[in-house]
Each structure stands twice: as C-alpha cells, then as structure tokens.
Amino acid sequence: RETALWMVACLLLSSLPTGQLHSTCHAFVGETVVLPCSTSPPGELTLSKSLLYWQIGTTHLVHFFQNGQDSLKDQDKKFRGRTSLFLDQMKYGNLSLKISSVQLGDDAEYSCIYREAESHQTKKSTIKLKVSAPPRIEEPPSPSEQNQIPSGSPTNVPCLAMLLLSFLLLVPLGLWHL
C-alpha cells in the first residue's frame, strides 16, 4: 500500500546523520504517518536524562518527552491523543514521531530536538510533512446502470432513432428496385 511505502521511505531517510537531514514525508488525510528522527551514531541512550521535543516553529508543541516518559500537559490541543513515540526503540536512537488521523492542518515543518542532559549536546532534525486530501476512487457502474441507455445530450437519441428509421426505410426500398 502507498502508506506503507511512505513509512518505509521516511524510516530509511531517518538513518542519515541527524541535524543535517531535511526530509519530506507525505500523507493523506485520515492516515497515520511516521516522521523520522534518530540519533547518530546509533547507540544506547540514557532516556531518564534526556529531553525530546517535537514542535512546529517555536510555539506549537507537538510531543514532549522528558525523564524517561511523555510529558504532554503543554501539548498543542490539535495533536492530543494523536501522537506517540516508539518507546521500545527510543533507547537505541529511534526518536521518530507517529501521528495518527492526519489532518490537512498537520501540513507543516516539524522539528525533532533531542538534548542529553549530562553532556548538553543538542541534535536537531527538520521534517516537512505534506498532507493531501485522499484520492477520489471512481466507482465502476453497477450492473443495473450498465444495462441502461447512456444519457447524453438530447441530440444523441434522435440521431440514433433517425439512423434506425433510415435503415428500415431504405432496405425495403432498395430491395423493391432490384
């Protein structure tokens, strides 16, 4: 499925050095998307002494993780209940953010900011999320619609009738002259 392809592509992009990567992810409204972020070099992180911010600009807090747990009391209301981290993978450097039920308003540039409390090292990655309306899927006509005479402009039906009438009149006339 296309969503799975985008998730794999985004995760592959996350293996590049953090801080230098500016990637783009795509999602349709209603889908779940994973915004990639990882530390490099990969190694075991001390999460109890780390901070992880996911934000839009400087005023919209999308997700915050500190002292080994989520801290979402100041999270932007439009993201409540729709974001999560990969807690079982974080200690190995996967800081990616999952956003469910993507909305058109989620289209933005996101920053993943990771800070180790002891070393005061900060790493930042920027990911652009582009959100589109879901594609329209044309439904094939139902069997009952396929048996109906197609509706078109009013001139189509009289032309067909004239053609049939001409054929019916000309065949007997042509046979009479033989």
Automatic annotation (TrEMBL):
BP-aspect Gene Ontology terms: regulation of cytokine production; regulation of leukocyte cell-cell adhesion; regulation of T cell activation; T cell receptor signaling pathway
Ig-like domain mapped to chain residues: 17-128
Regions crossing the membrane: 155-176
PANTHER family: BUTYROPHILIN, SELECTION AND UPKEEP OF INTRAEPITHELIAL T-CELLS PROTEIN 10-RELATED
Gene symbol of the encoding locus: Vtcn1
Any one of the GO CC terms: external side of plasma membrane
Xref: InterPro entries: Ig-like_dom, Ig-like_dom_sf, Ig-like_fold, Ig_sub, Ig_V-set, IgSF_BTN/MOG
Protein name listed in UniProt: VTCN1 inhibitor
Single GO molecular function: signaling receptor binding
Keywords (A to Z) from UniProt: Disulfide bond, Glycoprotein, Immunoglobulin domain, Membrane, Signal, Transmembrane, Transmembrane helix
Pfam families from the UniProt entry: V-set
